Amino acid sequence: MHTTVQASRRRRPGPEPFRQFVVKVNSRCNLACRYCYMYFAADPGWRAQPVSIAPATLDRLARRIAEHAATHRLPAVQVVLHGGEPLLTDPEVLGGFVDLVRAAVPAGCRVGAVVQTNGTLLTGARLRALARHRIGVGLSVDGGLARHNAARVDHAGRPAWPGIRRAARLLASPTHRDSYTGVLSVIDLDTDPIEVYRSLLELDPPAVDFLLPHGNWTSPPPGLADARPGVDRPTPYADWLTTVFDAWWHADRRRVRIRIFEECLAALLRQPTAGDLFGLAPFSAVVVETDGAIEQSDSLKSAYPGAAATGLHIATDPFDAALGHPGVAARQGGAGALAAACRACPLLAVCGGGHYAHRYRAGHGFANPSVYCADLARLTHHLAAAVRRAVPR
């Protein structure tokens, strides 16, 4: 493991350029999901943001992305249209921005684009507009049944499920199948994991991304209220996930990709990972808010007010300036940026310290193991055992 980490460092003599640009096209949402880390967590900064990103900001941003791609000779970049709810903006406006980026980047640089939506505003006409601009669609959903989505309501308390179900059917239809990138689903410990898994399969996504709720040592996620560093404790999230893994792993036909499992398996087998949950690959995503501010991952907003801020702005700063920000450098620092307990852990090269936002502890910053440390260890051991049984020594 130590050799793998050192070799990885030798391949990365300098900062890793950004390859994913998360664009907050709206700072508001038509839903009021009760667990949302954007609107119901530590950072109220969204209130000061413009509701929508201005055309002039989009134009400047396209040029900044192209500048970064040219500086680092990137073969490909990804644009993620995010919010709030991105479909509060006309899909033709979103498509026009993506077209600007594609026209501005150097020849040979591919631009992938996806909109991450709650689905309630998705219609056939909007899907066709997005498809004309080669923009994929990811759906955020908490399970494939109405009762799984009880926390997904609009500002009047009305359920979002009818709109979500309609969006899933549209995306899974033969007409729009090519636009469907998958579903994101936040784990709810009060749900039955097999029921959730099977219900998501009924939505027929090409991929599922099960997300751990954003929390940390100071504001623990549900089920880990008594979490304390260095103390043995239950592993409710690993218990939930391993139940799903066993059903997925032993299925006669694997109908869907599940990112959290594939990332863990890749890290176990010393294959490349995205680096935000498993492995020691450097973080390579950056966020641009509706006012043009350059920020780190918005998941940091679950830690404390201003945690994601860099003080940089696309009007005055290239994206390269953000590569020198201490927070970005820490997320690209490999094992050297992790807590001593993580550096000494035999799972270091696989776990990679867990998600950066989940390491925060007031008064100690982010140099801590993940609040999900025990869960990640149990999940890793479970998947490693499955691989050992499946692959001859």
Automatic annotation (TrEMBL):
InterPro entries with a match to the protein in the record: Aldolase_TIM (IPR013785), rSAM (IPR007197), rSAM_sf (IPR058240), rSAM_SPASM_FxsB (IPR026335), Sulphatase_maturase_rSAM (IPR023867)
Pfam families, A to Z: Radical_SAM (PF04055)
Domain Radical SAM core residue range list: 15-251
Domain of life of the native organism: Bacteria
Keywords: Iron, Iron-sulfur, Metal-binding, S-adenosyl-L-methionine
Transferase in keyword set: no
Record carries keyword Nucleotide-binding: no
Classification via PANTHER family: ANAEROBIC SULFATASE-MATURATING ENZYME HOMOLOG ASLB-RELATED, RADICAL SAM DOMAIN PROTEIN
NCBIfam families: SAM_SPASM_FxsB (TIGR04269)
Protein's name according to its UniProt entry: FxsB family cyclophane-forming radical SAM/SPASM peptide maturase
Organism: Streptomyces chisholmiae
